[in-house]
Amino acid sequence: MGNNAGAIIDNIKNSGSQMDDGVNNIAGTVINWLWGISIVVAVIVVMVVGIKFIIGSTQEKAEYKKSLIPLVVGVALVVFATTIVKFLFGMGN
User: Fold this and answer.
1) Any domain includes 62
2) Which residues neighbour 56 within 8 Å (Cβ) at sequence distance 6 or greater?
3) Which of 88, 74, 63, 4 is nearest to 39 (CA)?
């Protein structure tokens, strides 16, 4: 009876680790998609603001410069946040 209990406990431990691997894979995939989409959106927004900056008048250029600061900070936050999450998921493996 003791061997059967040990086998059951081992099966429970193994199934838990398989579930953890599945969750890590799904989370990693979601993080990669979010990172990729955010980079694409950031590049498009920077391109649009850059074109408006080139075409705009002097007063509009000053406004676009002001709008670029939050944009750059937001892009940096998204990139660094996803990088930190990827690093933490990598440490668990």
Assistant:
1) yes
2) 63, 64
3) 74
Q: Which long-range contacts (CB under 8 A, 24 or more apart) does 66-71 make?
A: 71/42, 71/45, 71/46
Mean pLDDT taken over the chain: 76
Q: How far apart are CA 11 and CA 8, in angstroms?
A: 5
Residue-number span of the structural domain to which 29 is assigned: 24-92
Task: Kindly report the three-state secondary structure assignment for every residue of 15-46.
Answer: HHHHHHHHHHHHHHHHHHHHHHHHHHHHHHHH
Q: Reply yes or no on whether the pLDDT at 33 is more than 80.
A: yes
Helices (H) and strands (E) in the chain, counts: 2, 0
Neighbours of 93 (CB within 10 A): 7
User: Domain total for the chain?
Assistant: 1
What global pTM score does this model have? 0.60
Residue 10 forms part of a structural domain: no
2 within a domain of the structure (yes/no):
no
